[in-house]
Amino acid sequence: MTETRSFSIPVAVSVFVVVVIWLGAGLFFANGMPGFSGVVPGFSEDIPDDSDADVSIAEVGDTVSVHYTGTLDDGTIFDTSRESVARENDIYNPARVYSPLEFTLGSGQMIPGFDRAVRGITPGETKTVTIPPEEAYGSETVEEEIERRFLEDVIVQTVPRSRFTDTVTQSVPLSQLPDGSSLSVGDTIDLPSDISATVVSIDDVSATLEIENTANPFRGQELAVGLAGEFQGNPVRITAIEEDDITLEIENRASPFFGQTLAVGLTGQTTEGESVTIVSLDDETARIQMPNTHELAGESLTFEIELVAITDDVSQDSADISPSSSPDANGDD
């Protein structure tokens, strides 16, 4: 759903892997003019009724706008696109613009059950549908299968040696830099996360920056076997150096099971305090179970949906592409 909608957070599962950054340096985003039929005076033949010939039907790839009201099993209205309904049910948000929700069918912007409910209806038509948890925000717990090694106390990983330079050189469009139009060679720019960069060259459209590689745990030191550092609270040590690669031994303190022997039934906590349980385990993989923290997890949701308009058509190829902004959106295949 769009950013102005409530309950738009897609369900996702966090995988507990030490993320080595230096390796790569709302809600759920009829009918046509009557035709003429009958018998023409003086004729015995019926004239075919073609009243539906030009009626649009919502289908995958269409961009549609809908009004909706969402209700829980106990009758509580938890979200709506209609201001009057929001005010009547004490869920009015003055910071929100109440208007029809626009999205593209089949794009993965909406929860699957909502997306499917809109397909096949026509502008002006109203439909009521109840969506089970698995077609909405999922059950109260979620499971994910990951590589077992990411739960071990120590991870061994080989990465390109080039990732351990003290600085990184990168060309950046001037439009993406603060005061880009007034920059000069030698200027220093403050970037997010307390990183600074120096302008080493500039042209009409871009600037080449030399950026401090603060993510490098060995910054300012000569690389050597046995050299130790720390990244995000996890000790890191070089165990081998090749011409192009470096092998690291990483103490995986981010694992919710750090310091414990992995076993089925073992429960730990993430760094955010969420409970995690191992439900199956073999030599290569582990399946972990976590609470689904979405506020509507485990709920069946009933929606009254009115298709206001079909505003655009896009190609089927485009409709099949899941939005990058949601690597795990609850889209429909």
Structure commentary:
By secondary structure, this protein is mostly beta strands. It has 3 helices and 19 strands. The protein has helices at 83-88, 112-118, 316-319; strands spanning 38-39, 46-47, 62-71, 77-80, 101-104, 126-131, 141-147, 154-160, 167-173, 188-191, 195-202, 206-212, 228-231, 234-241, 245-251, 267-269, 275-281, 285-291, 301-313. The strands form 5 sheets. Strands 3, 4, 5, 6 and 19 form a 5-stranded antiparallel β-sheet that branches. β16 (267-269) and β17 form a beta hairpin.
Overview features:
333 residues; mainly beta; five-stranded antiparallel β-sheet; four-stranded antiparallel β-sheet; extended; disordered C terminus
Summarize the structure.
With 333 residues, this protein is mainly beta. 5% of the residues lie in helices and 35% in strands. It has helices at 83-88, 112-118, 316-319, and strands at residues 38-39, 46-47, 62-71, 77-80, 101-104, 126-131, 141-147, 154-160, 167-173, 188-191, 195-202, 206-212, 228-231, 234-241, 245-251, 267-269, 275-281, 285-291, 301-313.
